[in-house]
Amino acid sequence: MGTIFLRSELFEKLVRNRKYLISVLMIIIAILSLIPSSAIPKQQNLWQADKLVHILMYFCFTSFVFLLFSRSLSNKQVIRLGVLVIGFGVLMEILQGLLPLGRNFSFYDILANSLGCLMGYLIYSMLIRSQVITRKP
Fold first, then answer.
1. pLDDT-based confidence at 6, cuts 50/70/90?
2. DSSP letters along 41-91, please?
């Protein structure tokens, strides 16, 4: 099933437009990351849910980016791309600390973002090993 999608016309269109898609995803993540604290519902145990959201958001983002670039990534480029995604997460946290949004810089959010990125990489790596997707050496 997965290999059928990767060879489909829809996937080819996504790959051709990957820069736009990734830009849109980055804008969505930036908006979600920089929403003023007054717009976020106050709940008990929000800390755990917040970290889960960070992990999930960066897992999806990283997986999507790796999938869209899967055919053209060398080993060095995979590492660079992972560093860029983590760097984007760090930038969002720095902006949360600097901008007057009622939000705070959180090292734990950076860890959650990085964990999501690592999980995305591991899924990508498993797909490469199982030859569901192929890339250049």
1. low
2. PP-TTHHHHHHHHHHHHHHHHHHHHHHHTTTT--HHHHHHHHHHHHHHHHH
| Selection from 59, 34, 75 nearest residue 120 by Cα | 59
Distance of alpha carbon 35 from alpha carbon 104, whole angstroms: 12
Closest CA to 70 of 119, 123, 124: 124
Paired tokens of 9 = 């016309």
Kindly tell me if the per-residue pLDDT of 53 is higher than 80.
yes
Query: Is the pTM higher than 0.85?
Result: no
CA distances from 126 to 85, 112, 122 (A): 19, 21, 6
Compute the average pLDDT of residues 50-71: 87
136 pLDDT more than 70: no
**Amino acid, single-letter form, for residue 4:** I
- Side-chain half-sphere CA neighbours of 78 within 13 A: 20
Give how far Cα 35 sits from Cα of 16, 29, 32, 75, 99, Å: 31, 10, 6, 35, 11
- Extract the tokens encoding 133: 């997707």
